[in-house]
Design brief:
Helices cover 57% and strands 2% of the residues. By secondary structure, the chain is an all-alpha fold. It has one domain (15-375). It has a two-stranded antiparallel ribbon. Strand 1 (108-113) and strand 2 form a beta hairpin. Helix 3 runs parallel beside helix 10, helix 4 (128-149) packs antiparallel against helix 5 and helix 10 (244-269) crosses helix 11 (292-314). It is an enzyme of class 7 (translocase). It catalyses: a quinone + NADH + 5 H(+)(in) = a quinol + NAD(+) + 4 H(+)(out). It is a multi-pass membrane protein.
């Protein structure tokens, strides 16, 4: 089946209309990030029974401005051993890719801008969904290069974690979007919005929507999936060796990507700029015309944003093995099974007159029940490990202690001794580090 062409008509657009739209998207993202900082702090403050910012400006509204100025005015330095070109380029790659996503997102229908009738969308292509996946995948290069170019261990570990995370969760995210493409018959974002006139895909394709919501949190490195940073282990992950505006570009890219995935969720699953029912039926759909749809789009997008903020204030960080297990053993299989079911439904519809929405709702209900049963099914209890003894008399004499015997390094128990260190043996034989060695002349004690 050939992909349907975009429904948006850009034939009246001129170069200055493109400039206005591009600047509007840029300003919208920058203002939204400032608002997101305030909303997140105030929201988490209420969830954690504390006031949050309430001094700078009314209700603390100017706190985000103070944070931005603080980053700008901090000392900007470059690590001595870093690859200076790549070190400076990495933050710009991450932020530049983040700014590109909203170019294909429709904010509303056709309106008149200074007498020119044009869609509220910068551009659209028959492969707009693939464009979104490609740009988000390219953005991770900024994180990986930033960690590598810093010439430091912790940033490198954070960037490697991020690469593994993007690969894992982009697979499940892409599979969840394929089911939307199948039922919409197009990869064009404007066409997908048009296909949700009667029913949002978040309802008809509920399992895919849930997989996308979980995957998008992992995609933007937010709690409980912020393993590339994990301040308890890696301080700030790939951003450890960055400061001032270089750090601010990474910080900005993270929040813009939150808006990007929220906008994609709104467009592909929540009806895009269309008003929710029953508002959509008022006055023969008058609220779906003019500039009203921009309000509905922004409201839906902020609803998804608040879901990520709520998740941060509610859940604890996963262990890395739990995190990868969720991606590879749960999300990807669920997305694959659901995709096969949707493909079967689309094949059956070629020979029957059954309504698509009715079939998807029935299958989605059965699928959801099965997933709940599998999640609640009690796990097999592992055999209890024999407790280690700490009594020296019970330790077999002459037995060499193996710190890695149980799979994880453990310290010796009383009465046990570690095997001799090869490094210490070499140092003592060279006479430079043993207990009897003395500092050489000219060296500090």
């Amino acid at each position: 089946m050939a992909a349907a062409a975009p429904t948006a008509d850009f034939s009246n657009d001129t170069w200055w209309i493109w400039v206005i739209k591009a600047v509007a998207i840029l300003v919208f993202l920058l203002v939204s990030v400032l608002m997101a900082l305030w909303v997140e702090r105030r929201g988490l403050g209420r969830m954690q029974t504390r006031p949050g910012p309430n001094v700078h400006g009314p209700l603390g509204l100017l706190q985000a401005v103070g944070d931005a100025l603080k980053l700008v005015l901090k000392e900007d330095f470059t690590i001595k051993g870093a690859d200076k070109f790549v070190y400076a380029l990495a933050p710009f790659i991450a932020s530049f890719c983040a700014f590109l996503v909203l170019a294909v997102i429709p904010f509303g229908p056709e309106v008149s801008i200074f007498g020119v009738v044009t869609p509220l969308q910068l551009t659209d292509t028959p492969v707009a969904v693939l464009y979104f996946l490609a740009v988000t995948a390219l953005g991770v290069y900024g994180i990986v290069l930033g960690g590598w170019a810093s010439n430091s261990t912790y940033p490198l570990l954070g960037s490697v974690r991020s690469a593994a995370q993007i690969i894992s969760y982009e697979l499940s995210m892409g599979l969840s979007l394929v089911s939307v493409i199948l039922v919409s018959g197009s990869l064009s974002t404007s066409q997908i919005v048009s296909a949700q006139t009667q029913l949002w895909w978040a309802i008809a394709l509920a399992p895919a929507f849930v997989v996308y919501l979980v995957s998008m949190v992992g995609e933007v490195n937010r709690l409980p999936f912020d393993l590339p940073e994990a301040e308890g282990e890696l301080v700030a992950g790939h951003m450890v060796e960055y400061t001032s505006m270089k750090f601010a570009w990474f910080f900005l890219a993270e929040y813009i990507n939150m808006f990007n995935v929220s906008a994609v969720a709104t467009t592909l699953f929540l009806g895009g700029w269309r008003a929710p029912w029953p508002l959509s039926s008022i006055g023969d759909g008058v609220l779906n015309t003019g500039w009203w749809p921009v309000l509905w789009f922004i409201a839906k997008m902020w609803l998804v944003m608040f879901l990520m903020i709520w998740t941060r204030g509610t859940l604890l960080r996963f262990r890395y093995d739990q995190f990868m297990k969720l991606g590879w053993k749960i999300l990807i299989p669920v997305a694959l099974v659901w995709l096969v079911l949707v493909a079967v439904v689309q094949g059956v519809r070629q020979f029957t007159e059954t309504d698509l929405s009715t079939m998807l709702l029935w299958i989605g209900g059965v699928f959801a029940v099965l997933m709940v049963v599998l999640l609640l099914w009690p796990a097999k209890k592992e055999e209890a490990e024999e407790p280690r003894t700490a009594h020296p008399d019970l330790i077999p004499p002459g037995g060499e202690f193996d710190a890695f015997a149980g799979g994880y390094p453990v310290p010796p128990l009383p009465g046990q001794t570690l095997p001799p260190s090869p490094r210490r043996t070499r140092r003592e034989s060279a006479g430079v580090g043993g207990p009897q060695s003395t500092p050489k002349e000219g060296h500090d004690v």
